[in-house]
Amino acid sequence: MSEAGGPRHVAVVMDGNGRWARRRGMPRIAGHRRGVEVVREMVRACGHRGISYLTLFAFSSENWRRPRTEVEFLVELLISTLENEIRKLHEGGVNLRIIGDLERFGSRVKLLVKNAQQLTSVNNKLNLTIAINYGGRWDIAQAAQRIGVDLAAGRLAAEDVDESAFGARLSTAGMPDPDLFIRTGGESRISNFLLWQLAYTELYFTDVLWPDFDEAELDAALRSYAGRERRFGQTGEQVSMGR
Ligand code: IPE
Ligand code: IPE
Ligand code: MG
Fold first, then answer.
1. Is 235 part of any domain?
2. CA 102, 103, 107, 111 torsion: positive or negative?
3. Domain with 210 in it
4. Mode of pairing for the β-strands spanning 126-134 and 180-183
5. Is 12 helix (H, G, I), strand (E, B) or coil?
6. Phi and psi for 134 in degrees, rounded to 5?
7. 210: closest CA among 220, 222, 218, 201?
8. Ligand 2: which atom is nearest the Cα of residue 210?
9. Residues within 6 Å of ligand 1 by CB
10. What residues contact residue 17 under an 8 Å CB cut-off, 6+ apart?
11. What predicted TM-score, i.e. pTM, was given to this entire model?
12. For residue 18, which atom of ligand 2 is closest to its CA?
């Protein structure tokens, strides 16, 4: 829990860029461009609100299925945004982490990610995680693969393969699970985001398109979260006794 019982970790599926642009008679990529500006605003706003972890879904393992020109634009936009923003993020005390299968990208992206993570690793104002070529099923499968390797090497015993051993091998190792999940753009689905990690997360769906998302919309999501009772399997009576 952060200030005033707010969420410590917020995870966001930033959806609706394409529709935002098409409604204005603009190409879909104009929506992605505007979406980056909203990311900048949200990083600042979450920092101000005492949120410690912000995890953003920027590109899914399924998004490669889009037209080649859009995929190329998105990858270039990711690279240039990372290049242009890293210094400001660092100055703002942001600790950046990229999750997802980076094998699909070239050495330029891998080096950029490595340097950005290294540079900001000392920061602790806001832990910003960007999911790129990420899929929840991929994450679970790669954790299983690591467990297999550790079992074969004798570093791990079969009876020790439990939830914490699994969590420690997910790409989100060391992070608390999200408290609040926000999806913009009107769809009520997870779309292969953090499948394991969202087990007990409060879900919030809004029709607002990502390029229109702002501080007021964030506060609406936070108010909705504040009104929920998180029972984690217990009864409501138990939860109120514990308060
Ligand atoms: C989200 O917006 C951004 C990415 C998935 C990269 P979309 O591009 O999915 O926008 P819509 O859903 O088509 O409006
Ligand atoms: C989810 O949005 C992925 C990201 C926001 C990166 P999509 O637009 O790809 O999701 P679907 O295809 O509508 O489920
Ligand atoms: Mg979409």
1. no
2. positive
3. 3-136+178-228
4. unpaired
5. strand
6. -105, 145
7. 218
8. 5
9. 14-19, 59, 63, 74, 185
10. 28, 31, 32, 34, 35, 209, 210, 211
11. 0.97
12. 8
